[in-house]
Write a structure and sequence with these properties.
The structure is a single chain. By secondary structure, the protein is α/β, with parallel strands linked by helices. It has a single domain, classed as Protein-Tyrosine Phosphatase, Chain A. Helices cover 49% and strands 8% of the residues. The chain contains 13 helices and 5 strands. A 5-stranded mixed beta sheet has the order 1-2-5-3-4. The chain is globular, with a radius of gyration of 18 Å. The protein starts with 21 loop residues before the first strand and ends with a helix.
Length: 280
């Protein structure tokens, strides 16, 4: 299933300088209840948020901001502070540390600027065999790597213990780590597979222009289908691979419910707390 920006326009926050900022509010779960508005928010980083955007987040109010980025991703792009919000750092490596696998010459080119530029990294990585493997294995890594599992378990603890205010969670682009976190949250709240996949895939509508632009750059450098596939994976979302990862969860654990409880430690009691707090 795909999801259009117009179909779920109400879920995009009224902000101008935070990319892919969306409210999980409005999704209907399997028991007929609906996710409450303005309590679970997914986004890209907050480094370039305008004063008006910060004021909007403060007004919700946002109680916790969970940042899934690694240290190097935040270089020159630290989140701006939202008054009243606690900042939680839970770094997750979705890429298998692909940027560290660039050649010395590649990294010199990337580091000419002071800021970490993920898009430049991706153009270089499109020609790196390890990065190609990372693109294929990104979602299995996020779901099955023990370090990733530990951080997602920590994420749930923060969501469960937030009694008042909204939880905003993000990575660099608000797509893969943030998308998996959203999928897990929606699953814990009782959303069906179609809703989970639709929310994940909505990111592809947000980043269509970037994928086209940087795919052309890779083509000009001699890239073919496999190299362009790296751009699509890192700048957009590979929904087919995401669905395959969900299928693997079903095959190995029986269901995503079992995965939540037995891998992430989200008990039935925890889920009742989440439903009582975040559904209406």
């Amino acid at each position: 299933m795909t999801i259009s920006l117009s179909a779920y326009a109400q879920q995009f926050l009224p902000v101008t300088s935070i990319v892919n900022a969306r409210d999980l509010g409005g999704y209907t779960v399997q028991d007929g209840r609906v996710v409450r508005d303005s309590v679970l928010i997914r986004a890209a980083h907050l480094a370039e948020a305008s004063e008006d955007d910060i004021a909007y987040l403060e007004s919700l109010p946002v109680a916790k901001i969970v940042d899934f980025r690694k240290i190097e991703e935040k270089r020159g792009k630290e989140d701006l502070k939202v008054p009243g919000a606690d900042n939680i750092v839970l770094p997750i490596d979705a890429s298998g540390n692909a940027s560290a696998q660039a050649s010395e010459e590649e990294m010199k080119k990337v580091k000419r600027g002071k800021k970490f530029d993920i898009k430049k990294i991706i153009v270089f990585m499109a020609f790196n065999d390890r990065a190609k493997a990372v693109a294929r294995e990104m979602y299995p890594t996020l779901f099955f790597d023990p370090d990733c599992q530990r951080q997602f378990a920590n994420f749930f603890r923060h969501v469960i213990t937030t009694e008042n205010g909204a939880v905003l969670y993000h990575c660099t682009q608000g797509k893969d780590r943030t998308g998996v976190a959203s999928a897990l949250l929606l699953a814990a709240l009782g959303a069906d597979r179609e809703t989970i996949v639709a929310d994940f895939d909505a990111t592809n509508r947000v980043y269509e222009a970037d994928v086209r632009k940087y795919s052309r750059r890779v083509e000009r450098l001699g890239g073919k289908e496999e190299e362009i596939g790296v751009v699509k994976a890192f700048l957009g979302c590979n929904t087919d691979n995401f669905v395959k990862a969900l299928d693997r969860i079903d095959a190995e654990y029986g269901s995503i419910d079992s995965y939540l409880e037995n891998v992430l430690g989200v008990t039935s009691e925890d889920r009742e707390i989440l439903k009582a707090r975040y559904l209406r």
